[in-house]
Amino acid sequence: MSAHYKNGGDPGLPAEIPLFRRAQAGCQQSLTALMHRHDGLVQAVVRQQCLGDLPFAEAVQAGRIGLWRAILGYDPQQGWAFSTYAWPAIMRHIWQAVKSHARHEACVRIDSQCTDAVSADPAILVEVAALQRTLHDLVQRLPGRFHEVIVARYGLDGNLPASYRQLGVRLGLSHERARQLHTEALVWLRHPAHCQVLRTLLQRHTLADYEVADAVAQRWLQQRAGRHGR
């Protein structure tokens, strides 16, 4: 089947059209049959991608998610061969997995380096612990959606950091509005009225530091007022 896809083939169509219709109507058996029939397409896409450090099996699994979404969204009446329609969806999910894996590996390396650096100095450990507690308390004080956005965006709940698109889906918003909420949450966190203890620990509590933070907050308030027509 993989060789057939490499040659541009699309096995089963138009005989598969009823399967697509039933799968999109919720028939699990038809969906499973299509996933099995077109798994060779996933294998073909994976073999053509640069996976970095992502294991092949994880790339295939990510590609299968793309295949599943393509099956549910495919409309034969548009005139596209299924392989042509599904290929970008499969590739996109593989690349998302590659990027997520790369971010995770980078975080692991940074954590390891930080641990090695501070483990030799008890004073640094105390400072780091104080910063972590203070930052945690500050994030916990974030109001409403700001808290949810910051936790998800930086993976503070133990999950992988979420993209703006993923945040939008979670909150029922556009990815642009999710990006705006993230910016607004950072402005809130940086404002002197909220982060005085953290700024003191970081030695960023001079008058000049506060003036800069306040200016940023004022610009954000003006932009926000403009977006809402006030």
Descriptive account of the structure:
There is one protein chain. This protein is mostly helical. It has 2 domains: 2-100, Rna Polymerase Sigma Factor, Chain: A (Orthogonal Bundle); 121-227, Winged helix-like DNA-binding domain superfamily/Winged helix DNA-binding domain (Arc Repressor Mutant, subunit A, Orthogonal Bundle), CATH 1.10.10.10. Helix content is 75%, strand content 0%. It has helices at residues 2-6, 17-24, 28-37, 39-47, 56-73, 82-119, 122-140, 144-153, 164-171, 175-190, 192-201, 207-227. α9 crosses α10.
In short:
Helices cover 75% and strands 0% of the residues. By secondary structure, it is an all-alpha fold. The N and C termini lie far apart (60 Å).
CATH architecture of the largest domain: Orthogonal Bundle
Our count of domains comes out at: 2
Give the rounded overall mean pLDDT.
81
Beta-strand percentage range: under 5%
Strands, helices and their partners?
Layout: H1 2-6, H2 17-24, H3 28-37, H4 39-47, H5 56-73, H6 82-119, H7 122-140, H8 144-153, H9 164-171, H10 175-190, H11 192-201, H12 207-227
Helix pairs in contact: 2-3, 4-5, 4-6, 5-6, 7-11, 8-10, 9-10, 10-12
